[in-house]
Amino acid sequence: MWTRRFAGWAAVAATAVALVGPAAPAAQAAGPHREWTISWQPCAADPTAECGTLSLPVDWDEPDGERFTLALARRAATDPAARVGSLVFGPGGPGDSGVQRVLTGMHRFSDDLRRRFDIVSFDPRGVGGSNPVRCATDLLAAQPHVIADQAQFAATIENNALLRADCRARTGPLFDHVDTRSAARDLDAVRAALGESRLTFHGSSYGTLLGLQYAELFPHRVRAMVLESVVDHSLGTRSFLDTQAVAAQDSFDEFVAWCAAATRCALHGQDVREVWAGLRARAERGDLIDPDRPGTRLTPYLLSRLAQRALYGPDWPGLADDIATMATAPAAAVAPASPASPAAAVAPASPASPAAAVAPVASAATAAHPAAPVTGAEDQATPYPFAVFCQDWSLPVRDHREYAKHLRRLTRLAPDLRYPQAVFAVSTCLGTPTVANPQHRLKVRTDVPLLLAATRHDPASGYEWATNVARQIGRHGVLVTYEGSGHGSYTTSPCMEAVVDRYLVGGGAPAWGTRCPAVDLTS
Questions:
Q1: What pLDDT shows up at residue 21?
Q2: How many CA atoms lie within 13 A of 383 on its CB side?
Q3: Which has the minimum average pLDDT: 94-108, 286-300, 338-352?
Q4: ω into 173 cis (within 30 of 0)
Q5: What one-character-per-residue DSSP string does 426-487 give?
Q6: Which residue has the higher pLDDT, 86 or 335?
Q7: How much is the pLDDT for 330?
Q8: CB-based contacts of 277: which residues, under 8 Å, 6+ apart?
Q9: Could you give the CA distance from residue 448 to residue 109 in angstroms, rounded to a whole number?
Q10: What's the pLDDT at 397?
């Protein structure tokens, strides 16, 4: 689910805008109804690809109302004689740029797919070049990773309300309509504009939610649909947190097992969990420094996220190197908390409740990319494509007592990592009054079976999510399992690539229960 650069949405969105040019105004008056059309032209950043725009309704319930401009990009099939049609890629994140994927990430697709399909993607509404959501940088920076007490819990709800109002004012009418169900309606307009009677689609991570909701809305318009690293959109707060914690811990367990077997692991022969526990204790004291950003202290939450980012690849050797570097680095001096900034204080860890250790109040964006000096009013705004999440998920928590209970349970489920990235997602959305696209059990009745590509040890979209979605869609889906590790499998496993390509080109769905062996990472 979560993009491995979950912390860097500002940089991703800014890059996407630069690649396709400035975004269109937030909303435009709708003209007479017309067929969906895309005006393609060579992309400014790379003329070998084509960029285009599509004018769409802000609110699909009011198709003749205000409009926004969706940014797209495509690369034509390299063998016109073998062309099957258009393959639309659904970007993940939430907040990834599909335009950027087409311009700079075509390695994501095999040579055979590039030969047979026009590869098309887009920036989802509210992202990159598609009327990006923008919010005050200081309000984003006030979002806590982990909430310390009831006072901070109440302050978080208040700040989130201020943030929503600010985002709405800066973004325009689209802010209240960036949910994935609306994006699925956009996707059908893209299909029509491409001249395809049926959609061929490959969604990755959060992009699988887009695909699943399209399949619910337009079951008879699906030609082929691959859903890689599936998101289960039927979970409540507890199940959402628990499944994320279990998935993260499972991937960390695989890393520990690899270190025990692989001599190339920098921690080979050591008790990895003991070394890791020592680092967590230092993070709780405030004297642990990020190995990749000298001078930046790691809180327990940020230490956990450092590991989870490495598990996405997975980059086990890199994670082992980072742990070894931190374990041998001298302790940093602990700076006293500033009385003038109580919200940034770190709550002392309770021996009875280690999961309640609190990270300093800082947004994921500022944690990864400290804000540049403000030189004008516009510089105080930051792209915030993660806003879609709070319109897709209702994750209520009554008060800090309930919140702390969740954290204690996560510590039992994930004793090494303790803080799945879902913890921050919950605090980000606290107090959201109305969720446009809340969770529900799927009702997919497509004419063709969807292909669910799942990784056995996925740190973000856990295997349990894929099996649960497979149960929900029944005979309308086929689950294919990669028995390895990492977030995604298509670019990792030649076996998975072959299965997916055969299905997309038109070779039919694989047999239920098809499995691909893990790629050897120990040599």
A1: 40
A2: 27
A3: 338-352
A4: no
A5: HHHHTT-S--SS---------SS-EEEEEEEE-SSS-HHHHHHHHHHHGGGEEEEEEEEESS
A6: 86
A7: 86
A8: 416
A9: 22
A10: 97
Q: Kindly report whether the peptide bond that precedes residue 57 is cis, defined as omega within 30 degrees of 0.
A: no
Six-digit token pair at 118?
A: 């026009």
User: In whole angstroms, what is the distance from residue 334 CA to residue 342 CA?
Assistant: 16
Half-sphere exposure of 336 (CA within 13 A, CB side): 3
- For residue 248, give both structure tokens: 């993260």
Please give the pLDDT value at position 13. Answer: 37
**Mean pLDDT throughout 388-396?**
97
The pLDDT value recorded for residue 507 is: 79
Does the pLDDT of residue 288 top 70, yes or no?
A: yes
Q: Which secondary-structure segment (H or E) carries 41? A: strand 41-42
User: Are 205 and 1 within 8 A, CB to CB?
Assistant: yes
Q: What share of the chain is helix, strand, coil (3-state, %, to 5)?
A: 45, 15, 40
State residue 512's pLDDT score: 87
Give the pLDDT score at 106.
93
Phi, psi (rounded to 5 degrees) for 218: -130, 60
Angle between the 237-261 and 272-285 helix axes, to the nearest 10 degrees? 130
For 9: left if phi > 0, alpha if psi spans -120 to 50, otherwise beta; the answer is alpha
Extract the tokens encoding 80. Answer: 């016109």
List phi, psi (to 5°) of 275.
-60, -45
Are 229 and 205 within 8 A, CB to CB?
Answer: yes
In this structure, are residues 337 and 346 in contact, taking their beta carbons and an 8 Å threshold? yes
